Amino acid sequence: MILVDGKPGDRVPASDRGLLYGDGLFETIRFVGEAAPLWPRHMQRLAAGCERLRLPAPDPDLLRREAQIATQGMAQAVLRITLTRGSGTRGYAMPVAPRPTRIVAAFPMPALEAAPYRDGVRLHPCTIRLAEQPLLAGIKHLNRLEQVLARAEWDDPAIAEGLLCDARGNAISATAANLFAVIDGVPVTPAVDRCGVAGVLRAELLETLPRVEVRALPLAECLAAAELFLSSSVRGILPVRAVGDRVFAPGPVARAMQAHWRGLGFSVETA
Amino acid sequence: MILVDGKPGDRVPASDRGLLYGDGLFETIRFVGEAAPLWPRHMQRLAAGCERLRLPAPDPDLLRREAQIATQGMAQAVLRITLTRGSGTRGYAMPVAPRPTRIVAAFPMPALEAAPYRDGVRLHPCTIRLAEQPLLAGIKHLNRLEQVLARAEWDDPAIAEGLLCDARGNAISATAANLFAVIDGVPVTPAVDRCGVAGVLRAELLETLPRVEVRALPLAECLAAAELFLSSSVRGILPVRAVGDRVFAPGPVARAMQAHWRGLGFSVETA
């Protein structure tokens, strides 16, 4: 079910700035029945994004009520909240009194196989380099052509994700998940202050791991890691079994974070 | 009037990838009655963008027919063509058989005052730096948050545009126009192979000017130019009278290009 500004509907004005310029934000939130264990973190990131883009922040309680309506009766759902700057006069200038468009759309959670969680996933080493834009880094905005182009670099269904680097040669993330590497026994996740998205499960892990580093992660160092895994608020923790020809084995940190993920209430995946 | 996929209407599906990811392209085309003097160049850029984004290119004759319907009865119009990758399964992966969405929307041309064309416009020196993404540079895609943030840097109505640089300190463009600087008697326009948009009036000028350089243009060199002017396929040729505190006088190259613009059939602005 889809709600547009609180009303059932599946269409938006062609003049919406979300469509004209990608002028807005989104969140993709996994629901287990009525529960969304990472909801507060999604709301935090959405509020941070609104501040960055100078968008009036929506009321989280209103969003929660609309989320419950949209996901009603679904055992497992993915909820996408899209918030745009709405319609206004033509041109890049922000409307003086913006009336944001709020789209709350629920989809059935796709079935997840156990094998990727148990054995790990293969990554394609993407050739596209993420551009550095500190003013947009970290937030989940609607300008996602880089991710679209990155995802189009492979079509082998045996490859689940892509490994994305910046122009400096640092590993940053997957196309739709964050990246953790265990180096000398310490989990490391790339900084996302110049490009990349600050994932909500990444934020959860940063508060959960007893020791963790957020820093630049050169690709060579990433590929020399003892273990690699991805974090996604929809898909959970996915060990990496290969990046191109480089092979990894699922390791103890990924297993511990999978257990943490299940402990949050996402009990579907076996691992 | 707005046509969505050839039919009158002003709404698009909330699942359109143009809205979800900014996954698409646009053109903003000025019409004088039924004429659109730069139409072939707009179609060329749109086709180049489709190739870059792996979008099926629309039929220019179909677009032209829809443009005529949308602009019918308008003495002066701005036509925006938006082409998105349409709807598909969720996620960044491109649909195997995309069905692009085509939006052809006509707006009355805003009244233009004579003074900016005669005396020049003031530019705000923007602090945001354009990110370098060679795979998206030059084309007119829908990921325009940088321009939105840049345009939000000033609200003084006496300032018409912003001057945008890249992270290397090179001047690139205005927020919605291209930039020309006359240096040692030679017009120079910044290369747009790492960021920026290859404007259609810029392309027209590159073929018109007897001598012109396309290259990196360091900001200091730009500010030391004998004359500066902007090119926009909607607004034409605008001399620059100031960038922040640095004052310029409209010069002979801008005047010659204004005459060329009028010769194309855009006879509205006095200069």
Q: Care to give the gist of this entry?
A:
The structure is a homodimer of 271-residue chains. Chain A has eight helices and 15 strands.
Question: Could you explain the architecture of this structure?
Answer:
The structure is a homodimer of 271-residue chains. Chain A has helices at residues 17-21, 39-53, 60-71, 115-119, 145-151, 200-208, 219-223, 252-264; strands at 2-4, 7-8, 11-13, 24-32, 76-84, 101-108, 121-130, 159-166, 171-174, 178-183, 186-190, 213-215, 227-232, 236-243, 246-247. Chain A is of the alpha+beta class and 271 residues long. Chain A folds into two domains: 2-108, Aminotransferase class 4, branched-chain amino acid transferase, N-terminal domain (D-amino Acid Aminotransferase, Chain A, domain 1, 2-Layer Sandwich), CATH 3.30.470; 115-264, D-amino Acid Aminotransferase, subunit A, domain 2 (D-amino Acid Aminotransferase, Chain A, domain 2), CATH 3.20.10. In chain A, strands 7, 8, 9, 10, 11, 12, 13, 14 and 15 form a nine-stranded mixed beta sheet that branches. A five-stranded antiparallel beta sheet of chain A has the order 2-1-6-5-4. The mean pLDDT of chain A is 96. At the A-B interface, strand 3, helix 1, strand 5, strand 6 and helix 5 of A face strand 3, helix 1, strand 5, strand 6 and helix 5 of B.
Set down the secondary structure blueprint.
The structure is a homodimer of 271-residue chains.
Chain A: E1 2-4, E2 7-8, E3 11-13, H1 17-21, E4 24-32, H2 39-53, H3 60-71, E5 76-84, E6 101-108, H4 115-119, E7 121-130, H5 145-151, E8 159-166, E9 171-174, E10 178-183, E11 186-190, H6 200-208, E12 213-215, H7 219-223, E13 227-232, E14 236-243, E15 246-247, H8 252-264
Parallel strand pairs in A: 7-8, 7-14, 11-12
Antiparallel strand pairs in A: 1-2, 1-6, 4-5, 5-6, 8-9, 10-11, 10-13, 13-14, 14-15
